[in-house]
């Protein structure tokens, strides 16, 4: 993997310093800047062009959820947003997904989890712990999830129908299985699973696996 450029956004300087210390130990990750508010994050992202933005939620001036909506709605920005918050709250989780975030991590996670999360979203994948994904599924299945923003969940307009195998893979993605677990379940290679997942995302018009799960449940595909 090429070097990942990371922007840290948190209104607590000590928290930013801790994240910088952890991430700077990795050869493939460079912290290119910091911001203390959502507005500062938007300006810094435009100037520094990070690959990943570690975004706090509660901040003065503009919170992280609104900043995420602005950044994911900007066609000139291709940074993946990793929400890093102290609060394990469903309203934050669903607002983050609706805003277009690619991952959701709690601040009590270990250093290795932060590093892994940055790499995962930086590679274009989505990061949700299985228990969090199950909460997403349960909320959508019950019809209780808030209506996502149009930029986060595009209208379902398939480029072409999903194949039978792609439908199987989508259902397993919606069960929060990893590529390796899907490969074992379907008795196929992990590289083949990765190809199927890419095809599913393209056909659904989904940016990542999180959006694919949302679309699958919203439209009865899983």
3D structure, described in words:
By secondary structure, this protein is of the alpha/beta class. The protein folds into two domains: 4-127, 3-Layer(aba) Sandwich (Rossmann fold); 144-218, Arc Repressor Mutant, subunit A (Orthogonal Bundle), CATH 1.10.10.10. Helices cover 49% and strands 12% of the residues. It contains ten helices and five strands, in the order βαβαβαβαβαααααα. A five-stranded parallel sheet has the order 2-1-3-4-5, with helices on both faces. Helix 3 links the parallel strand 3 (52-55) and strand 4. The relative contact order is 0.11.
Layout of helices and strands:
Layout: E1 4-9, H1 13-24, E2 29-35, H2 38-48, E3 52-55, H3 64-72, E4 80-85, H4 90-99, E5 103-106, H5 111-122, H6 130-141, H7 164-173, H8 179-186, H9 190-204, H10 209-218
Parallel strand pairs: 1-2, 1-3, 3-4, 4-5
